[in-house]
């Protein structure tokens, strides 16, 4: 009973709430996720990629260390078991938003493709001085990371 009175006394006192800026991780920023998704699709053959390839490239493009590991795997200087690839929830959210905005489309539930509007956004993103490391990585790796190669890497097979 005494604890309840003490708590009520504390709650009746004056207090203020001040907004404090909190850093928001990139994978929770919708604009960042959609931009990276568009860059992944734009760097893929025919500006089209399977869901597996999108998750593969989007996850590995985020951090310098994984970009370097991916380059080494594709150059065959290290084995595919060196890569740890995750299915990223933010990719699915970004894909849903990109489809709703008309910059991407899903084909047969297996592959995503840029629409005409998406290709225009891709050209704009390439011209902007943003996500430069990711753009360089995707330009280098995207054409070599074919669906077959990614499938073999995911199975930890030599290719």
Structural class, from helix and strand content?
mainly alpha
Q: What's the number of extended β-strand segments?
A: 3
Biggest sheet record: 3 strands, antiparallel
H and E string: HHEHHHEEHHH
Shape: elongated
Q: What's the alpha carbon Rg, rounded to whole Å?
A: 21 Å
Amount of helix: 55-70%
User: Could you tell me how far the N terminus lies from the C terminus, measured between alpha carbons in angstroms?
Assistant: 71 Å
Mean pLDDT: 91
Strand content: 5-15%
Low-confidence stretches: none
Strand order of the largest sheet: 1-3-2
Number of helices: 8
Describe the overall structure.
The chain has a 3-stranded antiparallel β-sheet with strand order 1-3-2. The protein has 159 residues and is mostly helical. Helix 2 (30-43) packs across helix 6 (116-127), helix 2 runs parallel beside helix 7 (132-141) and helix 4 packs parallel to helix 7. It is elongated. It has 8 helices and 3 strands. The model has no long low-confidence stretch (mean pLDDT 91). A hairpin with a 3-residue loop joins strand 2 (104-107) and strand 3 (111-114). Helix content is 57%, strand content 7%.
